[in-house]
């Protein structure tokens, strides 16, 4: 079930693996799940997705130097933007940091 998958990935991203390959796999799964979420999802689905949304802007991910990881993070952030439109999920400072890094 989509909600269970999102919850599982969110829990894993709360303490992301230090191994780059494992992290890439985890973010690839997150991207896949986020693409399956509808725009303007239910409140419960957004609540379940919060850990993923928070993990993506954590310094250890957002500031990572690996280009493949940056591509996956950017893709996930794009999906989050699609899902949450017209609402703004991140504040201006975080959005500035995101776009400065990408």
Structure in a nutshell:
The chain is mostly helical and about 100 residues long.
How would you describe this structure in keywords?
102 residues; single chain; mainly alpha; 0% strand
Walk me through the structure.
- The protein is an all-alpha fold.
- It has one domain.
- 74% of the residues lie in helices and 0% in strands.
- The chain is built from 6 helices and no strands.
- It has helices spanning 2-14, 20-35, 43-56, 59-62, 67-84, 92-101.
- The radius of gyration is 13 Å and the shape is globular.
- It is found in: Nucleus.
Q: What is the mean predicted local confidence, pLDDT?
A: 89
Separate helix tally: 6
* Secondary-structure element order, N to C: HHHHHH
Sheet bearing the most strands, described? Answer: none
Oligomer: single chain
How many β strands by DSSP? 0
Proportion of helical residues: over 70%
The overall number of domains is 1
Principal-axes geometry comes out as globular
pLDDT below 50 for ≥5 consecutive residues: which ranges? none
What is the distance, rounded to the nearest whole angstrom, between the alpha carbons of the first and last residues? 32 Å
Q: What class do helices, strands and sheet pairing give?
A: mainly alpha
Binned strand content: under 5%
Rg of Cα set: 13 Å
GO biological process, one term: mitotic sister chromatid cohesion
Main location: nucleus
InterPro entries: Pds5 (IPR039776)
Pfam family, one: PDS5
């Amino acid at each position: 079930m989509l909600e269970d998958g999102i919850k599982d990935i969110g829990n894993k991203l709360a303490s992301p693996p230090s191994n780059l390959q494992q992290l890439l796999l985890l973010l690839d799964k997150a991207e896949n799940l986020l693409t399956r979420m509808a725009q303007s999802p239910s409140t419960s689905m957004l609540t379940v997705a919060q850990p993923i949304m928070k993990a993506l802007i954590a310094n250890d991910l957002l500031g990572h130097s690996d280009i493949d990881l940056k591509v996956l993070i950017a893709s996930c952030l794009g999906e989050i933007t699609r899902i949450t439109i017209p609402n703004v999920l991140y504040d201006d400072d975080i959005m500035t940091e995101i776009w400065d890094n990408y």
